Amino acid sequence: MAIGIWISLLAYFALMLGIGFYAWRKSTSNSEDYVLGGRNLPPAVAALSAGASDMSGWLLLGLPGALYAAGLVEAWIGIGLFIGALINWIVVAPRLREQTERYDNALTIPAFLANRFPSQATTLRMVSAVIIVVFFAVYTASGLVAGGKLFSSAFDGSYSVGVWLTLGIVLTYTVIGGFLAVSLTDFVQGVIMMLALIIMPAIVLYAGEGGGFAQAGETLSNVDGFTLGWWTPDMTLIGWLSLMAWGLGYFGQPHIIVRFMAVRSVEAVATARNIAMVWMAISLIGAVGVGIFGRAYVERNGISIGDSETIFIFLAESLFPALITGFLYAALLAAIMSTVSSQLLVSSSSLAEDFYKLFVNKDASGSALVTVGRIAVVAVGVVAAFIAGDPDSKVLGLVSNAWAGFGAAFGPLIILSLTWSRMTGAGAVAGLVSGAVTVILWISLGWNSSFLGGPGVYEIIPGFLISMLSIFVVSTVTQGADEFRPIPAE
User: Fold this and answer.
1) Structural domains of the chain sorted by starting position, each given as residue range(s) with its CATH number in brackets
2) Average pLDDT for the chain
């Protein structure tokens, strides 16, 4: 491998580890520091941390790969996500920041739900902790799959070595520095990702005698199975809704909404929202460009790529000098590591705060919980690495399953717990369980691939609807049980 690539990658690794050690000295003295960074994140850090931990390797591998394979029609996923993220910042972010602090300074989502519905506190903490750990093991595995693909495709190395190497680097700065390290590295990683997604589409569009948009369109118009239109003849309304429904997942992603809890003040949320949405728009447009223009470049030059999800890697090593290629690889690693670290931290904090403290040692000190959290980070990471063992795994497929699981289980629950004062603890449990079970059954029955003889329905749609309905029905039936603490007046 060219020395320039190693220089870029080593500089990136050194920066991530340096941030981890800085955070260790700055903010790991107690559980609130380790889990939420002392609730003192600046708006820009919270914004890019939420965005970077959200997008993962999906942004540079999964989405460009889907667009590369099928065409612009897959961009509906990005549009749905953008709309969902915007509503999430407007509806959930300010309320969650205020209410988690008012409800006994809850440090995790399960703790907030338990404090909000004290009659069902133990059940909510236990069930939500199980859901978080199970689905995050799968979600984290998707990031490790991306790391394995990078290592095997770009470096001609072993896929499994890539998986474990990615995990090792992430574990180092996450275990050492906790939430502050994860958030600061997310900020840097978010900047790197955005720059890469600005540079690559612009270069690819005119590379190899490319004639810009016009020639790319002409080239792609002759590719079988590929469309530049927003709608295809075989696309149904259900298919379109399944793509747009990705946006529903935002309301229930613990690793994203926990950033709302850590912003330094409710007033700072609006600034963070504006920064986050600009970053997201630029990054999504860039990812679309990588997939579309990358396919035009490949077709124009008669090249064949075995795995469409490696188009970013192929373009990085084919079109750029070694130093820039190393930077682009670092961007991909940034996308992967930012999400993996966030997911591991949320899983570990849930195990420490919502399992260990609840069932094992109720009087655990802050330093003891930090230690337990660090052990849990390693344990969840190792499980995820084993799940990621199959080199044929698809990043987008693993992400879609975990995204749906969280979105259906927690999405309606979070929205209604923040906005509906008549919601009860029994309704909360019903929504949490019914959403998760519906998603698991839908996937198990294959209805996300084919439903009633037609196209599949993305599992988040039935899961979200059933969860919402369960909360309304059960809460209405149990209104007289005095099962809830009213929402604090703003």
Assistant:
1) 3-396 (1.20.1730.10)
2) 82
